[in-house]
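Work Package 3 (structural annotation) set out to generate three-dimensional models for the target panel prioritized at the project kickoff. During this period the team completed the workflow that converts sequence records into discrete structure tokens, so that structures can be stored uniformly alongside our sequence database. As a representative example, we reproduce one entry of 599 residues exactly as it appears in the project archive.
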Amino acid sequence: MTSPDTPSAAPPSRPVVGMLALAALLGGLVVAWVYQRARAEALDGALVMGQQRLGLYASTIRAALDRFSYLPATIALDREVIEVLEGEPDRADALSAKLETINAGARSASLYVMDRKGVTVSASNWRTPLSYVGNDYSFRPYFTQVMSAGAGHFFGIGVTTKLPGYFLASGVRGRAGDIIGAVVVKIDLETLEEDWGRGGDAVMVTDEDGVVILTSRPEWKYAVDGPVTEELRRKLDAIQRYGAVQLRALERRVLLSLGDAARLERNGDARFVAQAQALDEEGWTIHYLADWEAMESNVRSTAALAGLGWIAFILLLLYLRQRRLVLKAKLDARDTLEALVALRTEALSAEIVERQRTEHHLRETQDELIHAGKMAALGQMSAAIAHELNQPLAAIQTFVASSRIFVERGDAATAGTNLSMIDDLCRRMAEIIRHLRVFARKSPVTPQVTDPAASVSRAVALLAVRLRQAEIDLVWNPPEGLMVSGDPGRLDQVFVNLLANAIDAVADAPARRIVIDAVRVGGEVAVSVADSGPGLPSDVADRVFEPFFTTKEVGEGLGLGLSLSYGIIRDMGGSIRADNRAGGGAVFVITLPNVSVST
């Protein structure tokens, strides 16, 4: 529930509401004007394109008809045709063969010759079952036109073949000059329809009765552009123009007149901008129908874009106004913000300095802790090292005393032998002390390419006394060519810790054995230290790397060796894990990234 003191959002001011209402009104007017303008331009464009298309389609029709217009008149002059029509019927088959050859060359649908009674005497299809020879076509208009005017034309469905076509006829005049028959060529215009259909345009041609004889839309074929009257049916049935085709009315309804021979109409479920052009020679009319639905969609899209543009303009104005208000608010708050930033910057600077000081202290503490671990390891090794040094010292005392006697006796050779043995013992002690100094030295961390096998060997040398005293069988064959990146001193400490723990683990084992192995596995170097001790209990294995965790008696260890080793290996980009061996005992495996050294 909102408290009474909580300020609510202020309602828009009256001037702003009035401006928005005015902008909405103006936007509506702009969209309406754009819509009307785009619609008018779309109609004008459709009319221009329609005129161009009508001219193109009329040219294709005229070209298709003119291609064969010469053929009937030319064949009518042939002497063989005249002889057959004037009383030499035995030559009809030869004439049919000749017509067959001419028809194949001209690529017309068919060629045939009719006598003065309208009976076909020769035809190019005389060899086919649907031959025209012997058929009476005197009822066809093109025959009556030939007999009266010397030439004729007609579009209809063939009585014999049931295929539509355009018929061109020319009269044959005998020797006396009278018309004794006709030559007819049938032209197939369906290829025009196929071309129109592939073009995607809506186009149709109607004959003098309004029947659609050619169209790119199969559903319009043989529909009547106008009413289907009984008088029209009787007329078409008398000349068998369209055979058994059932005539139907083409559903065209005028929506808007656009001038001469142009209108916006509905044809079925679609709307078109329809234009027409007459083909006077044939008595046909060609109609081009542009899809108004697509144009209307473009008009609506244009109006919508105008609306969106107006909205974008208003939003821009609102944005600029809001931006001005926000800028003013920012300018008012800038001084306060700068003061807060200055205070926060000062606090962050102090925090950064303190964090750097803390990190430096932590690094120093870690270094001290690692050094303390070294000292603890040296303390554990001190008794054995002292014993290892006492033995050569006692031997040196003995050799010195005996050498005095030999010198007094003048036995220089024996004295020299004693001195050589004293020198070997001194070298042995110096080597032990050198390893101790290197291990105990406190030096800065300097990562470098180092040989892990060399670090293992140095750890073995440091713990050699304990290994001999405990009579432990150590298996270690240093490999060559293994290189990792890290601090050699700290890596030595890790292996000293692992080897010392292994020595303690096998102290009470019946077979005291430690196996160290180093191999390259893929892009890593793996070093394992395995012992024959009792292994790691499950509760110990999970905590073995925790600081101050130890299984040794009080005073024998702080529990830091493995924890420090874990941290050193992690800082070098590697890992260390503890596990139990299948044959008994524990194994510690160190994995470090291998470093390639270019030669």
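DSSP finds 13 helices and 20 strands in the chain.
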